[in-house]
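Entry 14. Structure prediction run on the chain below.
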Amino acid sequence: MYTDVIQSIRQKAQRDPKRIIFPETEDPRILSAVDYIRAEGIAEPVLLGAEDIDPDQKLQFAYLLYEMRKAKGMTMEKARELMEDRHFYAAMMLKCGFVDGLVSGASHPTATVMRAAIHCLDINDWIGLVSSAFLMGIPHCDYGKGGLLCFADCGVIPDPGPEQLARIAVLSAQFFEDTMDVPARVAMLSFSTKGSAQGPWVDKVKQSVDMAKKLKPGLLIDGELQADSALVPQVAALKLKNSDVAGRANVLIFPTLDAGNICYKLTERLAHARAIGPIILGTLQPCSDLSRGCSVEDIIDCTAITVVRAQKKTSSLNFIINFDKQYALSSF
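Output returned:
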């Protein structure tokens, strides 16, 4: 059952709880979740209210943000303005190592959280993009890992090209493996299965499979696959031969944001599934968004996942970030 898998993630977090910052202190769901998280030892929550912002540190963060992004047009005035937003302040605390992870989005749109993450956090140069993934816990379901599947990208890139789609696949697979401790089996979804239809939409998915294999040799990935070919062993047996993924997929990569977002919301509502996330992928520091319709349980589980990622002391691609905050702040 997917509930057992989620419980195991909470237990992993409890073994080595990390400092997770929450900048939405006015949301009662956050406060309820934080009480549980603290009591159960899932994380060391850091609540960031307006009264918790230090004026001197805010200025230091603004200067650092200006230095980081001045080549992209950032001005000191704009950096100071952005630091009035608690999401930016929280992201800079994460960037500088004062906390180990960030969870927000319960009362703000994804764009707010994403802007702070993209501006302030380190983006993995090798992958070069930020995307997102949901863990979908589906009751009475045998697919994936006990009914738990990874859906991506459902929140960031509207119409990824082949290379972007390949990078989304690699990010999502690594996230799933880091969190679940099982091999990812990645299905690149389409309305076609292995040439049953033709067109530029199908070609995009085919190209992305080859690119993903080059990016991560040994990755278990296949496509283009229709959803039933990806998930249902009996359908896969009729349509394909010799696939390590078809009929056994646990990571589903959608060809567009339209498809991914619609599918996760339909699955959540019609199948009474749990949608945990969106988890932000591609930053070197772990950061999770929340749906504005999230429950207290969703916040708890999103926090546990963020802790597990922070325990790796790496990004979801296992690149270590060594940021010396004393060095960074001494230059102001």
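The chain has a mean pLDDT of 89.
Filed with the rest of this week's runs.
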